[in-house]
Write a structure and sequence with these properties.
Family: Belongs to the PTH family.
Catalytic activity: an N-acyl-L-alpha-aminoacyl-tRNA + H2O = an N-acyl-L-amino acid + a tRNA + H(+)
Keywords: Cytoplasm, Hydrolase, RNA-binding, tRNA-binding
Radius of gyration: 15 Å
CATH architecture: 3-Layer(aba) Sandwich
Enzyme class: hydrolase
Protein name: Peptidyl-tRNA hydrolase
Length: 196
């Protein structure tokens, strides 16, 4: 059950810096950037957390969103997320992490609450810093690396030219999933988006 007196904290996971901007690991930043554009917001450095933050409302008088991009590098994302959750008084059930996911095929989107981190260091850091795994996740499928490529190298490489043809549409759809969780709830979102 959501608490309308508190905002939602939507965290796009990624690495700061131009050299990482097009990486598979940075798809969370891409979704956060699109959500910020939809809200008409601009990211700025937060005074209490090592993160870029913007705030806005979904629709006229709708739920308040705090969008965040941690600037600590992926493996240390939890510290800024916990600081922002504390600053804005956001309960874990209203924290949404948007992240790349090796375990589902490219372009598939899955929404869930809690569960394991699947080897994702950004999620592991968040769970540790928040003291719980019971926050929401929007998992953006990037698929497994081809051949014997190391998964660590794969996530830190850019999307392929074939993948980039669909990327804009998929990032848009992932932003829709985030908005649906906030406005319609997790179960509705799963029913609407998991069939594809």
């Amino acid at each position: 059950m959501t608490d309308e007196t508190h905002p939602w904290l939507v965290v796009g996971l990624g690495n700061p810096g131009k050299e990482y901007a097009g990486n598979r690991h940075n798809v969370g930043f891409m979704v956060a950037d699109l959500l910020a554009a939809r809200l008409g917001g601009k990211f700025g450095r937060h005074r209490r957390a090592v993160a870029e933050v913007t705030e806005g409302r979904l629709g006229f008088g709708g739920p308040k969103l705090v969008l965040a991009k941690p600037l600590t590098y992926m493996n240390l994302s939890g510290g800024p997320v916990a600081a922002l959750a504390q600053f804005f008084k956001v309960p874990p059930g209203q924290v949404i992490a948007v992240h790349d996911e090796l375990d589902i095929g490219y372009g598939q989107l899955r929404a869930k609450c809690g569960g394991g981190e699947g080897g994702h260091n950004g999620l592991r850091s968040m769970s540790k810093s928040l003291g719980t795994k019971d926050y929401l996740r929007v998992r953006f499928g990037i698929g497994r690396p081809p051949g014997r490529q190391d998964p660590a190298d794969y996530v830190l490489s850019d999307f392929s030219s074939a993948e980039r043809k669909e990327l804009e549409f998929l990032v848009d759809r992932a932003a829709d999933v985030v908005e649906a969780i906030v406005t319609r709830g997790l179960e509705w979102t799963q029913n609407a988006y998991h069939s594809s």
